[in-house]
């Protein structure tokens, strides 16, 4: 599932390829992928150009040269972007395509049809309506202190709440807690000041590393817990059980369910 690091990569990709090109047409295979009526989307965006982007959590907002017109992209379970020339075949699963006047196109790839595209007038109002909090990368120690103070839920579930830390998904939450040496079942409002500092530092470390490595998990530092998980690009393939040990001290990694989500942690480091 595309999470904050992947969506940040899409943001850079779109900015590097698609800005300042007038949109001539938009083709949509399945209107259910739209959060705005197709006729309205086409009428509003035809002739407009993308001018910049902003990412908040897993949401990518693309600004245009028309006042009050912003495109919101959500990549669902497996969405992505592909920029290509008219002379090439349409990418597989590119169910929404923006056609630019210069002969290039932007395909919004939707393999599982959980992805969404639509228009928003005001980004701040949209985020408030959808209860999407501050982007995880922008959280300060003060932000975390304030938001966790009244949360009686366990910290793993709290971090997955998009109103708390927008963009944090399951593996990211596990990695943040591992790097900060916090047990996933600790109550959020019981974290000590030094633990909140450690959590904020871990958030910066994990997310910036993931962005730098373009979310290619096999390329992450060996000190990361993520190597205990099974990924398509894992050097261990599906044979990860023998590698489920803490990179710090070799303690076997434990796997439990927290808030219904599979959770990896080190029982020695994260007491």
UniProtKB/TrEMBL annotation:
Cross-referenced InterPro entries: FPG_cat, FPG_N, H2TH_FPG, Ribosomal_uS13-like_H2TH, Znf_DNA_glyclase/AP_lyase, Znf_FPG/IleRS
GO annotation (BP), single: base-excision repair
Annotated catalysed reactions: Hydrolysis of DNA containing ring-opened 7-methylguanine residues, releasing 2,6-diamino-4-hydroxy-5-(N-methyl)formamidopyrimidine
Cofactor entry: Zn(2+)
Top-rank taxon, per record: Bacteria
Annotated Gene3D superfamilies: 1.10.8.50, MutM-like, N-terminal
Keywords assigned: DNA damage, DNA repair, DNA-binding, Glycosidase, Hydrolase, Lyase, Metal-binding, Multifunctional enzyme, Zinc, Zinc-finger
Pfam families: Fapy_DNA_glyco, H2TH, zf-FPG_IleRS
Domain Formamidopyrimidine-DNA glycosylase catalytic: 2-115
FPG-type domain segment(s): 234-271
GO molecular function: damaged DNA binding; DNA-(apurinic or apyrimidinic site) endonuclease activity; lyase activity; oxidized purine nucleobase lesion DNA N-glycosylase activity; zinc ion binding
PANTHER family reported for this sequence: FORMAMIDOPYRIMIDINE-DNA GLYCOSYLASE
Name recorded for this polypeptide: Formamidopyrimidine-DNA glycosylase
Lineage: Bacteria, Pseudomonadati, Bacteroidota, Cytophagia, Cytophagales
